[in-house]
Amino acid sequence: MSTTTTETLPETTLLRFATAGSVDDGKSTLVGRLLHDSKSVLTDQLEAVERASASRGQDGPDLALLTDGLRAEREQGITIDVAYRYFATPRRRFILADTPGHVQYTRNMVTGASTAELTVILVDARNGVVEQTRRHAAIAALLRVPHVVLAVNKMDLVAYEESVFAAIAEEFTAYAVELGVPEVTAVPISALAGDNVVEPSANMDWYGGPTVLEHLETVPVSHDLAHCHARLPVQFVIRPQTAEHPDYRGYAGQIAAGTFRVGDPVAVLPSGRTTRISGIDLLGEPVDVAWTTQSVTVLLEDDIDVSRGDLIVPAKDAPPVTQDVEATVCHVADQPLAVGHRVLLRHGTRTVKAIVKDIPSRLTLDDLSLHPHPGRLVANDIGRVKIRTAEPLPVDSYADSRRTGSFILIDPSDGTTLTAGMVGESFASPEPVKDAAEEDGWDF
After folding, report:
1. What is the reported pTM?
2. Comparing C-alpha atoms, which of 429, 278, 413 is closest to residue 353?
3. Burial of residue 356 (number of CB atoms within 10 Å: 0-12, 13-18, 19+)
């Protein structure tokens, strides 16, 4: 019997997903319910939650405590930091990022969703779609998260009315379509009661779709980045110069996308020098081929200048090298980002000096209109920027590569992260910018 079961079970895949939503929409409760009802909570964890809940005078366990780990989170009843949880079912493994709902912690939502393949956006059925809901939908579209789940929560507080759910789902879906979100799946739930989270709800027989967990287990996810543009950001140059390895020179890093093989003709950017791969070491052993997410050391046939921050790419599939970067950004710092600000730009393993040349537009979340040339972006603003870098950078479009098409802007005075950027076009087309005075005043 056990042999038959093993043969019929499909090989499990991995899904990275994030939760988002406005304050008190029930994100942490949903995550707690998901973990609890899928039997992914250890006994001692559940007992600790039950004791903490009882000390507060609550009749049952407060499942939100399974994710709200910081003391400030427990005291205020809010999520502040991104809480990562790992769990699995027989059908799939999951890495979950429970992100904050407060506007001031939107930067953490960007962090949690940046590597997600699916985002669950919660909406309180009593309040409907609010500004923070629209902001999170815009960020999901901006980060090109391929799948979005709209979880209309607290249906028990609106008497499980189908009309309430239908109105919210219609409004959100229309907004998401304007943003270019490729897929929206709406699910009516009650995280507190467990309706449609793991088990189908007996209170909403009018709903015939999947539960949240069923959708998470079955949504198609592609991890096949082996056929994408091959990219290897160099993190470290290995030169042991020992008696055993007197001439060894290797370039170590994690493959961001694609596949590399011994003998492949490659270019080293931004210099553009070309050579061939003479060897690949993986975990100290030579291999003929390596692919995405593997950490490897690449050896080259020619002795050319390669250092940390360089990018090794196929000679016939190299990204453009430029000092002028135009991107859509989400500003995450408290201090504004203004035209003329000098910043550091970190792209992959390279950090260069840069200056903000222009801010062509800022996105208005209510109607998705563009406010032209706002002059600056404040915390949580989404807009377009034009940046001039002190050194050339090899950058892909974010639409082609989420790894090598993204960057962050850093305050050079204290190292604070200012802005998360995505190179190239986004869901919003910027206003045309006059180029008459582009070169005035720039010293690089």
Report:
1. 0.77
2. 413
3. buried
